[in-house]
Design brief:
By secondary structure, the protein is of the alpha/beta class. The chain has one domain: Cytidine Deaminase, domain 2 (3-Layer(aba) Sandwich), CATH 3.40.140.10. A seven-stranded mixed beta sheet has the order 1-7-6-5-4-2-3. Strand 2 and strand 3 form a beta hairpin.
């Protein structure tokens, strides 16, 4: 597996914290990068308010994009949680994400079926399929 994302422990902690706080609804958010490393986690509201799927309102996406522009960062990808299943993209995730958000955009999934032992995995979603990769912790 190839490393497709570099990020700090605080970013992982933020995604896991968000997942726990929103359960049983799936949490979601956008990741910003600079110089090839994720530098910010943007929490977003799950417009679906669902434990089985997520979406981010276009106005919220635009607000986050403007903030990234102001900070000199670029879109790295997304994250969302699975509250009762493993951190593997579902058929719905693949259908929603592969059309417009394939590589180079990464997709972190936070599995919190066992909230005390969260699972974090990173994927590329492309052409109706998923490929797991690795992430690297940086200082």
């Amino acid at each position: 597996m190839a490393v497709i994302a570099r990020l700090k422990r605080e970013h992982i902690d933020e995604m896991i914290k968000h997942a726990r706080e929103e359960a049983p609804i799936e949490c979601c958010g956008i990741l910003a990068k600079r110089d090839g490393a994720i530098v910010r986690v943007y929490r977003a509201k799950n417009a679906e308010a669902s434990p089985y799927r997520f979406s981010i309102d276009a106005r919220e996406q635009l607000r986050i994009q403007r903030d990234m522009d102001d900070e000199g960062t670029e879109w790295a990808g997304f994250y969302h949680s699975h509250t009762g299943t493993p951190a593997v993209p579902s058929p719905t995730d693949i259908r929603q994400m592969s059309t417009f958000f394939g590589p180079p955009y990464v997709h972190f999934l936070v599995g919190i079926a066992d909230p005390d032992n969260p699972e974090l995995r990173v994927w590329y979603i492309e052409n109706g399929d998923k490929t797991e990769h690795e992430y690297e912790l940086v200082d």
